[in-house]
Amino acid sequence: MRRPLSEIIKEMSCAVLSQPEAEPSAEAAHAALLFAHVAWNRAAVFGARGPDYRPMLREFEASNPRLWDELKSSDAEALVTELAASNRHTILTTTGTWWYAACAATTCTSNGSIRRRPD
Questions:
Q1: Higher-confidence residue: 18 or 8?
Q2: Number of domains into which the chain is organized
Q3: What is the DSSP-derived secondary structure letter of residue 68?
Q4: Which 3 state secondary structure label does DSSP give 106?
Q5: How far is 44 from 111, CA to CA, in rounded Å?
Q6: pLDDT number for residue 4
């Protein structure tokens, strides 16, 4: 059964909260979503580092110095790595389905550009 991406990201985000059943602070919720986003991109693009997320994380921390108390670990990279590893199958299955659909809907022209297939 296919699940909406928003549901998967929310589930991943809750996995890094120390008390997922409690309502987190805005900063902890933002950090958890950020970690899920980074993990998703790393797993979907096979380890691509992407932009540095730490400046954004520092803003959350400045706004709420107790941010790390609401997360399972104070090691951001460990949280991202754990999320990417534990959700790799879901991520690759979901992105693989998208990739197949994108490839099936496009074609390469003789000059090498990619165009939508004619209906």
A1: 18
A2: 1
A3: G
A4: strand
A5: 29
A6: 82
Give the integer Cα–Cα distance in Å for 60 and 94.
30
Query: What is the signed CA dihedral for 67, 90, 53, 74, rounded to 10 degrees?
Result: 30
List, in sequence order, every residue forming a beta bridge with 107; answer none if it has no partner: 115
pLDDT at position 105: 46
CB-based contact 88:43 (threshold 8 Å)? yes
Report d(CA 88, CA 21) in Å as an integer.
Answer: 24
Using alpha carbons only, how large is the chain's radius of gyration in Å? 18
One-letter amino acid at 30 equals H
Whole-structure pTM value: 0.73
Higher pLDDT, 105 or 41: 41
Token representation of residue 107: 């074609």
90 Cβ contact partners less than 8 Å away, ≥ 6 residues apart: 8
As given in the structure block, the two tokens for residue 21 are 């059943």
Question: pLDDT value at position 35?
Answer: 95
* Domain residue limits at 26: 5-116
